[in-house]
Amino acid sequence: MSEQTIALVTGANKGIGYEIAAGLGALGWRIGVGARDRQRRDTAVEKLRAAGTDAFGVPLDVTDDANVAAAAELIADHAGGLDVLVNNAAITGGSPQTPTTLDPATVRAVVETNVIGVIRVTNAMLPMLRASASPRIVNMSSSVGSLALQTTPDIDMGPVPAAYLASKTFLNALTIQYVKELGDTNILINSGCPGFTATDLNGFRGVRTPQEGAAIAIRLATLPGDGPTGGFFDDAGTVPW
Q1: What is the DSSP letter of 35?
Q2: CB-facing half-sphere around the CA of 16: CA atoms within 13 A
Q3: Cis-peptide, bond into residue 104, ω within 30° of zero
Q4: Residue 129 and residue 125: Cα distance in Å, rounded?
Q5: Which UniProt keywords apply (predicted)?
Q6: DSSP-derived secondary structure for 126-151
Q7: Which of 61, 92, 136, 193 could pair covalently with 164 via S-S, beta carbons 3.0-4.6 A apart?
Q8: 178 catalytically annotated
């Protein structure tokens, strides 16, 4: 492993993911731009490099076992290891979604990307993360997945797609389980909420910019060795589970 910090950001070709890559790259890190679409991935890498980031493309479909395994091999060969993983790739499954009208196929598709995809990528990258001196895993979640907030009177979560909301609750639980299993390692694992950010996931209706949405991931990716693990955070502080 070189002294340069190596990070992989999934779904990094646009929106929050791109801004996470840009923010970490600005620190002098080497950034793997994980994305399915080749043209968008190449465009993002070119743009990052033009801005001075040491970026390289990682063909990555988080729903495909063989593809994710190949991505891990590419990172090992190209960068020599991995220090930070930001699981950012996600889909909503479209709108509107209510529990009584939800197509089970939509739930499967959303969970496949937003939850199983995180498991698939994390487990594939884990051997490299274990070998890092300062490994970090950041799971990009959302406050809409908070059961505490969902059940608090007078808090309106808005018309959030049901499958997407449930997938973020699932992801939060998964984050906790990873922390429990890897508690005897030096890997810091946290969930982060970007806030209601204007991206194509919500038709650009969000009130925050992608740069603002990326800030929490950058903070959690750069935590010191004695930083928190097993938490859920946004820019304001701790988010209740």
Answers
A1: E
A2: 32
A3: no
A4: 6
A5: NADP, Oxidoreductase
A6: HHHHHTSSS-EEEEE--GGG-HHHHT
A7: 92
A8: no
Q: What is the mean pLDDT of residues 36-54?
A: 97
Sign of the four-CA dihedral 65, 53, 38, 171: positive
Query: Looking at residue 17, what is its pLDDT?
Result: 95
Encoded tokens for 4: 């340069």
In terms of DSSP bridges, do strands 237-238 and 232-234 run parallel, antiparallel, or are they unpaired?
Answer: antiparallel
Catalytic residue among 18, 164, 232, 233: 164
Which tokens in the block code for residue 223?
């935590």
Enumerate domains of the chain plus CATH numbers.
Answer: 6-238 (3.40.50.720)
User: Quick one: pLDDT band at residue 95, thresholds 50, 70, 90?
Assistant: confident
Residue 164: exposure state from Cβ atoms within 10 A (0-12, 13-18, ≥19) = buried
- Joined tokens for residue 171: 């992801």
